[in-house]
């Protein structure tokens, strides 16, 4: 079996399904477990820190672990950094067969910090029977020193190990999510998968096959497609003018408004009313136009003054959720210079920010558009923000499964 610790809503699991495999996930969050169940994934609802390892002994091919990142993430208080010496001590003790977790946990500023040591408890117990064959682990960049400690231990047990920081955008995920990765194998040289994408497209040459341009949010969400409705928001009235369709305080989504306006490219020219996008896929940035008012949309990562803001023709910044300040919103700006007043003499009002939907956020994490997220909005966003992007996971796992992975195997917007 492939054992998935801290399995969450199924980022690793969905990647495995694309590769023709499946795992057994250990996860305690009830809503993540419900999402996994709806997605057809095998799950044991339990506390990873309390579950006995002997149950799996003699049966584990691969071990996957993505410990909760809240204690280490820049989105939180980062008490994991304060607790880091205690976590390193726990890893060293568990690698030697000493369980000092209870004493160390009492000294932690954040009890979640010590969860990053849990994979070593499983690895030590499984190593006694020569398992697993391979290991894949993922966390926020600040955990890299801990992964290096794991690597030093695994090498003494006969593993080839690679650790480093990878950017999900380099593997076709429409998000510049940077993560600390550990890859280990007993049977092959551990190394990172070759990137398939770059910030600027690289043509094929004598030195390699080249790389496509990073996948933009607009491209992933289907903005710019010509085979169906395009998500739009109307600022200042629908076709032919009229009242503001989404008044002040409205929380309508871009998708809700898809039939109420038109997209036009950034470059000048008159608006061309249409129920479909005339924006080519290789220039997917959408801008709204009605009665001469033209808007381009960007995604703002949170409500803080230094929030990351990315245009729709770029990948998203790292998506993280958990409290109101981290609420991602679509924000509008003029797509081209505009007069102070509209043709009818009224002051031009910038459309209000529009909250991102769970479906959109999931797509930007490279989950399918129809992924069955369970729970209320807060519970869904929490799952999405903490998940491993499946498309990145598939690149990491394919070599261990001796499977060729084609990026086209992933479908985002539908």
Structural write-up:
It is built from 10 helices and 15 strands. With 414 residues, it is an alpha/beta fold. The protein folds into 2 domains: 2-205 and 386-409, Vaccinia Virus protein VP39 (Rossmann fold, 3-Layer(aba) Sandwich), CATH 3.40.50; 216-314 and 320-364, no CATH class. Strands 3-2-1-4-5-7-6 form a 7-stranded mixed β-sheet, sandwiched between helices. Strands 10, 11, 12, 13, 14 and 15 form a 6-stranded antiparallel β-sheet that branches. α3 runs antiparallel to α4 (101-107) and α3 packs parallel to α6 (144-156). The longest helix is centred in the N-terminal third of the chain and has 17 residues, at 79-95. The protein is globular, with a radius of gyration of 23 Å. The protein starts with a strand and ends in a 17-residue tail after the last helix.
CATH class value of the largest domain: Alpha Beta
Strand order of the largest sheet: 3-2-1-4-5-7-6
CATH architecture type of the largest domain: 3-Layer(aba) Sandwich
Largest sheet: 7 strands, mixed
Q: Looking at CATH, which topology of the largest domain would you report?
A: Rossmann fold
Pattern of helices and strands: EHEHEEHHHEHEEEEHEEEEEEHHH
Radius of gyration: 23 Å
Quaternary state reads single chain
Q: Which stretches are low in confidence, meaning pLDDT under 50 for 5 or more residues running?
A: 226-252, 255-292
Strand content: 15-25%
- Class computed from helices, strands and strand pairing: alpha/beta
* Average residue pLDDT: 81
Give the fraction of residues assigned to helices: 10-25%
How many runs of DSSP E, i.e. beta strands? 15
Please work out how many helical segments DSSP would assign. 10
């Amino acid at each position: 079996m492939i054992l998935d610790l801290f399995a969450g809503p199924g980022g690793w699991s969905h990647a495995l399904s694309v590769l023709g495999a499946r795992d057994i996930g250990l996860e305690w969050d009830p809503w993540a477990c419900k999402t996994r169940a709806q997605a057809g994934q095998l799950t044991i609802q339990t506390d990873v820190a309390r579950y006995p390892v002997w149950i799996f002994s003699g049966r584990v091919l691969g071990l996957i672990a993505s410990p909760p990142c809240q204690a280490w993430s820049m989105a939180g208080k980062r008490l994991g950094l304060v607790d880091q010496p205690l976590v390193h001590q726990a890893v060293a003790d568990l690698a030697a067969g000493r369980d000092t977790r209870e004493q160390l946990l009492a000294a932690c500023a954040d009890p979640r910090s010590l969860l990053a040591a849990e994979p070593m408890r499983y690895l030590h117990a499984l190593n006694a029977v020569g398992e697993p064959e391979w290991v894949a682990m993922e966390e926020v960049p600040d955990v890299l020193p801990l992964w290096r400690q794991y690597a030093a231990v695994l090498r003494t047990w006969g593993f080839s190990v690679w650790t480093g920081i990878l950017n999900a955008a380099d593997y076709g995920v429409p998000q510049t999510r940077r993560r600390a990765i550990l890859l280990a194998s007993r049977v092959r040289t551990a190394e990172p998968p070759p990137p398939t994408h770059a910030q600027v497209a690289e043509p094929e040459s004598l030195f390699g096959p080249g790389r496509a341009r990073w996948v933009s949010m607009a491209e992933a969400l289907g903005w710019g497609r010509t085979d169906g409705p395009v998500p739009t928001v109307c600022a200042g009235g629908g076709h032919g003018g009229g009242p503001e369709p989404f008044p002040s305080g409205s929380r309508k989504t871009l998708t809700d408004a898809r039939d109420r306006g038109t997209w036009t490219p950034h470059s000048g020219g008159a608006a061309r009313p249409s129920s479909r996008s005339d924006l080519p896929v290789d220039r997917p940035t959408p801008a709204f136009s009605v009665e001469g008012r033209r808007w381009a949309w960007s995604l703002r990562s949170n409500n803080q003054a230094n929030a990351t803001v990315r245009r729709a023709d770029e990948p998203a910044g790292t998506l993280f959720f958990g409290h109101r300040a981290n609420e991602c919103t679509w924000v509008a700006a003029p797509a081209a210079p505009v007069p102070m007043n509209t043709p009818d003499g009224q002051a031009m009002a910038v459309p209000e920010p529009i909250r991102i939907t769970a479906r959109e956020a999931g797509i930007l994490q490279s989950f399918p558009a129809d992924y069955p997220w369970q729970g209320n909005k807060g519970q869904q966003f929490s799952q999405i923000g903490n998940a491993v992007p499946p498309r990145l996971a598939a690149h990491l796992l394919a070599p261990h499964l001796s499977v060729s992975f084609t990026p086209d195997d992933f479908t985002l917007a539908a």
